[in-house]
Amino acid sequence: MILVFRVVLLIILAILWLIFGLTVCILRPFHKGNISCLTQMLRCGRWAIGVKVDSRIDVKAIREQMPAVMVGNHQFNWDIIVMADVPQPGTACIGKKSLMFAPIFGLLFFLTGNIFIERDKSSKAGNEILKIVDVIKKKKKSIWIFPEGHRSKGQGVQTFKNGAVNIASQADVKILPFAISSYKIDLNRWDNGRVIVRSLPPVSVAGLDRKGLKETTRQLHDSISACIDEMDRETGFKREETANVTESDGKAE
After folding, report:
1. Is 242 a domain residue?
2. Is 181 within 8 Å of 235 (Cβ atoms)?
3. pTM of the entire structure?
């Protein structure tokens, strides 16, 4: 019964969000505050999925460092609701070019001023990075990137790709790291617990060579992972073990 109620509620909220979002974006297409406005609207979705968010973000400090490359861990599609406080005016996200053809949402993603790239063609990767760098330099936009490249689905922080650090280096801007504590949403459960969203100190990549940039990527991964572990201890969240156990000897492989 809870599941049915939540699904219906989320569908209604999604429709209202799309209608209001399109209205705002059509009235002021590509405005720097569009994405911030739309993500702030998603905060009401926290109640709908039964999660309480403890936001520990220094908004003033973040805006003083912009434009920048914002990076954070990516767990589930629900992240967009959980981290709704993070995107500030002047922030853009990166999406696959195919997303442009998604009904309604593709138009909304486009009008908010986000960036479409070809993510499946490695031969064009360099050109796509230059496109993003150009947006940061000329339009003074901050870029939000999930350096894991895909959702971890509760399995801990995955390996970071080097793209975010390379973009920050070429655009000559700082990296603003964020961490979201571990969580699991069960739509058939009233209370899905507390999630902490926290900003970490900015990271400079100025003057670093290729080796230094790779080391920075590793350090970002480690610092975000450590922050998540600390927050998980505070919230009491326990991640499920994923070790495979053989039936014959009962030992982990």
Report:
1. no
2. yes
3. 0.87
